[in-house]
């Protein structure tokens, strides 16, 4: 039996897998951002029951490993008769995981807006919706940019967990190529470099935003 050698074709396969890694990251950040924003608003609600429900959701999501969420989405629903494609299950799992953390990040950013801003908007007879729209969210959004971009780095790296259900992202592609070439050093150095090329600029962007926005 002749073993394959890690070359341009194999590196091209890694680049294709990187495309799926980035796509899954975008799905997680968009879906998780929308859900997380709703949970963050609920977490800062004036109604205690809504705050409690949102807080419970965040604690549950942050208290469960993302791998367990993935198992429940893929294998659990499969046992219940719902056969989900790996991309759909991975996207749903990463969305739920991301929402729990973004909700807490953004909740902190909303509550970081000085109390005087809330009081000033109340003195102008603004409704709660107007307070959020014109006063609170613009300031909270500025504060939230650095930690949100920083968290995106974690999302990129955590997509590797989805390989457990057969989704071929970057880490899984590295495993497949290594099984075909038996050259783990070359293969996984290439995988690590690709992760670095994506994550390092995001980390630097997060630090730059933190300095630029004084957040």
UniProtKB/TrEMBL annotation:
It holds the Pfam family BPD_transp_1. The chain crosses the membrane at residues 20-42, 54-77, 185-203. Keywords: Cell membrane, Membrane, Transmembrane, Transmembrane helix, Transport. It comes from the Bacteria. It is a multi-pass membrane protein. InterPro entries: AA_ABC_transptr_permease_3TM, ArtM/GltK/GlnP/TcyL/YhdX-like, MetI-like, MetI-like_sf. One of its GO terms (biological process) is amino acid transport. Belongs to the binding-protein-dependent transport system permease family. HisMQ subfamily. This is Polar amino acid transport system permease protein. It comes from Rhizobium giardinii.
């Amino acid at each position: 039996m002749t073993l394959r050698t890690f070359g341009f074709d194999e590196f091209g396969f890694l680049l294709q897998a990187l495309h799926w890694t980035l796509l899954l990251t975008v799905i997680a950040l968009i879906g998780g951002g929308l859900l997380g924003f709703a949970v963050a608003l609920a977490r800062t609600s004036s109604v205690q029951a809504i705050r409690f429900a949102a807080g419970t959701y965040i604690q549950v999501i942050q208290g469960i490993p993302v791998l367990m969420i993935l198992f429940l989405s893929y294998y659990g629903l499969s046992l219940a008769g719902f056969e989900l494609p790996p991309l759909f299950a991975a996207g749903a799992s990463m969305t739920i995981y991301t929402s729990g953390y973004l909700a807490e990040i953004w909740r902190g950013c909303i509550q970081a807006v000085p109390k005087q801003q809330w009081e000033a908007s109340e003195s102008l007879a603004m409704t709660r919706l107007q307070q959020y729209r014109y006063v609170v969210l613009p300031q909270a959004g500025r504060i939230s940019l650095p930690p949100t971009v920083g968290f995106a780095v974690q999302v990129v790296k955590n997509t590797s967990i989805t390989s457990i259900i057969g989704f071929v992202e970057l880490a899984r592609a590295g495993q497949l190529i290594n099984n075909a070439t038996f050259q783990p050093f070359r293969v996984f150095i290439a995988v690590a470099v690709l992760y670095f090329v994506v994550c390092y600029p995001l980390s630097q962007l997060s630090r730059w935003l933190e300095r630029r926005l004084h957040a």
